[in-house]
């Protein structure tokens, strides 16, 4: 079964063909992860372990919001059709209606927080006025996306908060509901403050190599369609190219150059499978010099030509 939609590349909306993802409703998630707790609070708190059988399984959160904090591992998170690298400390905010899947992941474990809009209703006005609160969680503003990256110290604090929230949520004690609601709000505010702290220290040499890698991933994810040079990325994150390659490979499992090539190929796959654009246009939109360059790289990385991949995707 297929449906149609709009896919944005370099600011342009394209008409696409898209396979319908698996629908996920809050009531189904609650049944799997503590129905009574969820019924009391409108919240589900869980550890999300992404095994090999969960790769490329697309699903849509029909009626609930989600926040994911990467606990360990690495991989690719495809969120509303846009792939981006993930590593420990990355935080994603997802609106109801968002579609996502994980791909090429290794030992990927996330802390997951699912909640109905009613869980925010009483405090939505205050949260919306809180600096750093993502508009996507209010049902307005930009789409679902990576919210922020937590440095090691901030990640450790958020991890503790998640554990406290999960214990109270699952306790079943009469006072557990009150503590769950309070700890839920504390976690949201802590993440807001973390995003503001990250914005207050842009550029320059970073205290943490992990933060530099996160910045590099963001630059590669956003700049893949242009003539992006790894040396320029290294300069923007305050590292020399060799040092960036070293720390990036240690965190992501591949070099910055390999990661950029992967992101370009994944975006090319999206266009090949969901649009009728000529091959030359696909190449230009995904950072390749021309169609022959795309064909050579695609065949090496995917094991088939772009034309063959498109024929199989129809």
Identify the notable features of this structure and list them briefly.
Jelly Rolls; alpha+beta; 314 residues; Arc Repressor Mutant, subunit A; two-stranded antiparallel ribbon; eight-stranded mixed β-sheet; 10 strands; 13 helices
Structure, explained:
- With 314 residues, this protein is of the alpha+beta class.
- The chain contains 13 helices and 10 strands.
- It has helices spanning 26-32, 35-41, 118-121, 124-128, 152-171, 176-199, 209-223, 230-236, 241-252, 256-274, 279-285, 291-302, 306-313, and strands spanning 2-9, 12-19, 22-24, 43-50, 59-61, 65-79, 82-87, 90-94, 99-115, 145-149.
- Strands 3, 4, 5, 6, 7, 8, 9 and 10 form an 8-stranded mixed sheet that branches. A two-stranded antiparallel ribbon has the order 1-2.
- Strand 1 (2-9) and strand 2 form a beta hairpin.
- The longest helix is centred in the middle third of the chain and has 24 residues, at 176-199.
- The model is unreliable at 1-18 (pLDDT under 50).
Number of strands: 10
Mean pLDDT across every amino acid position:
83
Could you estimate the helical fraction of the residues in percent? Answer: 40-55%
Radius of gyration: 20 Å
Q: Helix segment count?
A: 13
């Amino acid at each position: 079964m297929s449906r149609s939609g709009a896919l944005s590349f370099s600011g342009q909306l394209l008409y696409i063909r898209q396979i319908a993802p698996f629908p996920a409703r809050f009531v189904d998630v609650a049944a799997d992860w503590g129905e009574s707790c969820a019924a009391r609070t409108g919240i589900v708190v869980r550890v999300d372990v992404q095994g090999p059988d969960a790769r490329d399984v697309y699903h849509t959160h029909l009626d609930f919001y989600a926040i994911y904090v990467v606990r360990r591992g690495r991989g690719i998170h495809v969120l509303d059709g846009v792939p981006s690298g993930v590593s420990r400390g990355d935080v994603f905010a997802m609106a109801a209606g968002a579609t996502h899947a994980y791909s090429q992941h290794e030992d990927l474990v996330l802390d997951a927080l699912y909640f109905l809009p009613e869980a925010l209703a009483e405090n939505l006005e205050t949260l919306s006025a809180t600096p750093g609160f993502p508009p996507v969680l209010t049902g307005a503003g930009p789409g679902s996306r990576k919210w922020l990256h937590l440095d090691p110290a901030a990640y450790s604090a958020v991890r503790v908060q998640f554990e406290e929230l999960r214990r109270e949520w699952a306790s079943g004690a009469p006072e557990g509901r009150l503590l769950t609601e309070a700890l839920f709000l504390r976690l949201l505010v802590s993440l807001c403050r973390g995003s503001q702290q990250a914005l207050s220290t842009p550029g320059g040499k970073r205290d943490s190599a992990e933060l530099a890698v996160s910045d590099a991933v963001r630059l590669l994810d956003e700049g893949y369609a242009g003539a992006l040079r790894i040396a320029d990325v290294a300069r923007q994150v305050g590292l020399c190219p060799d040092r960036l390659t070293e720390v990036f490979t240690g965190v992501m499992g591949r070099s910055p150059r390999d990661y950029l090539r992967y992101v370009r190929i994944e975006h090319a796959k999206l266009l090949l499978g969901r649009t009728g654009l000529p091959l030359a246009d696909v190449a230009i939109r995904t950072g390749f010099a021309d169609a022959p360059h795309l064909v050579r790289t695609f065949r090496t990385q995917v094991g088939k030509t772009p034309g063959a991949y498109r024929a199989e995707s129809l």
